[in-house]
Design goal:
heterodimer; A: mainly alpha; MetI-like fold; 14 helices; about 70% helix; about 0% strand; B: alpha/beta; Rossmann fold; 4-stranded antiparallel β-sheet; about 25% strand; globular
């Protein structure tokens, strides 16, 4: 406590004292741990150097003929030559502007949907329309567009369409399964549990085989579903089972008082689910949702097993051209880069969402 | 027109083997302010939660206005439009701004147009003196502010009856009076109110009638003066004296 009548002498504000500088050698070799880390780091850098040498210094960016790529450097010229095949698969070359338009449309729609403020029924309708436009663009057959069967679709548009559609269709399904699993009605609950556990118990590859090969055999004669459609169905149900469990986690974290308050205000059940329950449940589980979304984007590459021509299959087939000397590393690295960009983008976006949520909670 | 705003006739409620309400009968007339008190576990929250059917009663009859509570869902909607509820834990929607907390329920359950709903919300937020916080999220408000928003949110539905379930029990002491002030203003406006609370000062100054409950039974009801001064039942006397001693 300050004595009454005490005299205070305020001191001028001062800069903090300087940090004592350590010599560099002491920092990197100062003790056993530092020395070890330094040596390991140098070893890693040295081991990467040949890779850089291969990827950049000895690399061929421009070649007159494939034979120039024989000397061991990375053959990026191959990617240039095969870019169209990797990006668009067997899509007719004269029509590839349509595939480009689909990619751009998907990216534009994703960018337009980033802000949670815009998440409403209108946006859903816009998405539904956009997907319709994309399918027409890819498939053609009307409006003067040449018909291109789905067996000719390929590359990045197929990867993006499968990822967006499977996640987009799986989400409402997952919400129903998650709500069903918590339902007080035993029939609904057991159906939900059965679907979730069955699908989670199967490997995706198995599910894809069932969809691609068994399903046509099981269907009555004369019924056909497009192979791409069947693959999409398998991816969707697989994603739905995993998303359902993530969403269920979010529902469990929700305070019962929220539902009581909504009931006391007379808000009808489905409106309560849409406006009060789901937004909060989803906010609670952004990290695992992101995780599932990223896994599903990469899972789309498994469709090559049943002969759907996604970006990875397209890259694989590009490498089989005998004119080029075994350029599969380059092709896979290129595809890996595109996958990484997509998944890293999702990751950054989820971090942004989380920050937004926590800013709201703590002012 | 019904005789009473709320009418309970021999209401029974069980939680498993626990007998939470024992033949509880009570009528609250229009414009009346009733404070329900009693030790914890006495059934006072249960009785108020049965009135807008957050809990189903297991026996007896409950009328709110002209409507009897039962399994008919249309009746339930009608009752919930009549009766506003304020919870101990506020139960504001944390993902919505204060304004949206008040406007959205009107839009969702009454089909009010957004513009009208927001105007209405502004009016009631102003009435509980918190209009300046309208664009904030609940997480950015103090407990007292949250509870006032919760009161405004309930009022936006234009209820004829307001139910309060221990509205100040989750508040820090310095915030209790701002909530009680808002409730007193509401009472002065003629609202029919049923309040579960331990705030005996509020009961004394605002209530027309005090209901004392113990072990699921309504032990005694009477005007506050009588209940605090000379209650008939020894159980009421004992409770009132412990409350007086701790206050």
């Amino acid at each position: 406590m300050n004595a009454p009548g005490a005299v205070y002498n305020y001191i001028e504000p001062q800069l903090p004292p300087h940090i004592a500088r350590k010599p560099l050698l002491k920092i990197v070799f100062g003790d056993f741990l530092s020395a070890t880390l330094t040596i390991v780091a140098i070893a890693i850098i040295l081991s990467i150097l040949p890779v850089l040498n291969w990827a950049l210094i000895n690399a061929h960016w421009n070649v007159a003929s494939p034979a120039e790529c024989q000397d061991g450097g990375a053959c990026w010229a191959f990617i240039r030559a095969k870019a169209r095949l990797i990006m668009f698969g067997l899509y007719p070359p004269g029509e590839q502007w349509r595939a480009v338009a689909v990619i751009l449309l998907i990216l534009a729609m994703i960018l337009a949907s980033l802000s949670p403020r815009l998440w409403n029924a209108k946006l859903l309708a816009v998405w539904a329309t956009a997907i319709g436009v994309m399918l027409i663009l890819m498939g053609g057959g009307i409006a003067g567009l040449r018909f291109v069967p789905t067996s000719k679709w390929g590359g990045l548009p197929v990867t993006l369409l499968l990822a967006v559609l499977s996640l987009g269709l799986a989400f409402p399904l997952a919400v129903l399964l998650a709500l069903g699993r918590r339902s007080p009605l035993p029939v609904i609950r057991s159906i939900s549990v059965a679907v979730i556990e069955l699908v989670r118990g199967l490997p995706l590859v198995g599910l894809l085989f069932v969809a691609a090969i068994l399903l046509p055999l099981l269907l009555p004669a004369g019924w056909t579903i497009d192979k791409l459609g069947r693959t999409l169905a398998a991816l969707t149900i697989f994603a739905a089972a995993y998303l359902a469990e993530v969403i269920r986690g979010g529902l469990q974290g929700l305070d019962d008082g929220q539902i009581e308050a909504a009931e006391a205000l007379g808000i009808p059940y489905w409106k309560m689910i849409w406006h009060i329950v789901l937004p909060q449940a989803i906010q609670n589980v952004i990290p695992p949702l992101t995780n599932t979304a990223i896994v599903m984007v990469k899972n789309t590459s498994l469709v090559l097993i049943v002969g759907v021509f996604d970006m990875l299959s397209a890259a694989r087939s590009a490498t089989t051209d005998p004119a080029w000397p075994a350029p599969s590393t380059e092709a896979y690295m290129f595809v890996a880069l595109i996958y990484f960009l997509i998944c890293f983008g999702i990751s950054l976006y989820s971090r942004h969402l989380e920050l937004k949520v926590s800013a709201r909670a703590h002012g | 027109m019904s005789r009473n705003a709320i009418e309970l006739q021999g209401v029974e409620k069980f939680y498993g083997g626990f007998h939470a309400l024992k033949r509880a009968s009570l009528s609250v007339s229009l414009g009346e302010r009733v404070v329900v008190c009693g030790p914890s576990g006495s059934g006072k929250s249960t009785i108020i939660r049965c009135i807008n059917r957050l809990e189903k009663h297991d026996g007896g009859r409950i009328f709110v206005g002209d409507v009897e509570l039962g399994d008919d869902l249309r009746n339930l909607d009608a009752v919930r439009r009549e009766a506003g509820m304020v919870f101990q834990q506020f139960n504001l929607f944390p993902h919505l701004t204060v304004m949206e907390n008040c406007a959205l329920p009107q839009i969702l359950s009454r089909g009010t147009r957004r513009k009208a709903a927001e105007e209405n919300a502004r009016a009631y937020l102003d009435r509980v003196h918190i209009l300046d916080q309208a664009e904030k999220y609940p997480g950015q408000l103090s407990g007292g502010q949250k509870q006032r928003v919760a009161i405004a949110r309930a009022l936006c539905m234009r209820p004829k009856i307001m139910l309060f379930d221990e509205p100040t029990s989750a508040l820090d002491p310095e915030m209790i009076h701002e909530v009680l002030d808002a409730m007193t203003e509401l009472a002065e406006g003629g609202m029919t109110m049923m309040v579960v609370t331990h705030e005996m000062g509020f009961a004394r100054s605002v209530a027309d009638r005090v209901v004392y409950m113990e072990a699921g039974e309504i032990v005694e009801t009477g005007p506050p003066k009588e209940m605090f001064g000379n209650a008939r039942d020894p159980r009421t006397q004992r409770f009132m004296s412990t409350i007086a001693a701790s206050a």
